[in-house]
Amino acid sequence: MKIICIGRNYTAHIDELKNVRPEEPVVFIKPDSSVLPKQQDFYIPEFSDNVHYEVEVLVKIKKVGKHISKEFAPTYYDEIGLGIDFTARDLQSKLKEKGLPWEKAKGFDGAAVIGEWLPKTDFKDINNLNFKLLKNDEIVQEGNTSFMLWKIDEIIAYVSTFFMLKKGDIIFTGTPAGVGKISPNDYLTGSLEDKELFTIKIK
């Protein structure tokens, strides 16, 4: 199982981090060891003083595919979820300054929260899904998949040009504006169309 992540897929998030809008999807990979085990708290790693939450809509691939066309992309997934791409922002900034890969800032142990999965058939339109993240019962991020620069089916078509997709692979589709720092004793809750899909305690 591999975790394929899309960066800079919401304009407001691009602006808040003062990044340049990309001409094509920004793709990076998290190792399977980055998945936070179910029911486990997230421990802030000792190598970072500025870990950020980034809530994202997730897609689980259900069969093998390569060079998938956009029109056939919907046949490659049946489940939609929600998760967090934890990012060591201070470390990422240093790596970006040197033109180095982001893996140490994005792929460390526990950096990928994967919530519960819902059937795609639960939703009328996957390109119009509301989702949000609460920190200590206050909304810190709100998004809608209609604001993605590249929609889910376009992402699947694009990434399958470079990587063979396999059953169980998970795609993180990008985060909206509102990312921010976590601190010990914070409590994060993620909801998709008002269905709570994960809760995380920060240690």
Number of helices: 4
Molecular shape: globular
Q: Please estimate the helix content.
A: 10-25%
CATH topology: Fumarylacetoacetate hydrolase, domain 2
Uncertain stretches of 5 or more adjacent residues: none
Strand content: 25-35%
Task: State the major sheet.
Answer: 6 strands, mixed
Number of strands: 13
* Class from secondary-structure proportions: mainly beta
**What's the mean pLDDT score?**
95
- The run of helices and strands is EHEEEEEHHEEEHEEEE
What is the CATH architecture term? Alpha-Beta Complex
What integer value in Å does the Rg equal?
A: 16 Å
Number of domains: 1
- CATH homologous superfamily descriptor: Fumarylacetoacetase-like, C-terminal domain
Strand order of the largest sheet: 2-1-10-4-5-7
CATH class: Alpha Beta
Distance between the termini: 27 Å
How is this structure best summarized?
The protein has four helices and 13 strands. It is mainly β and 203 residues long.
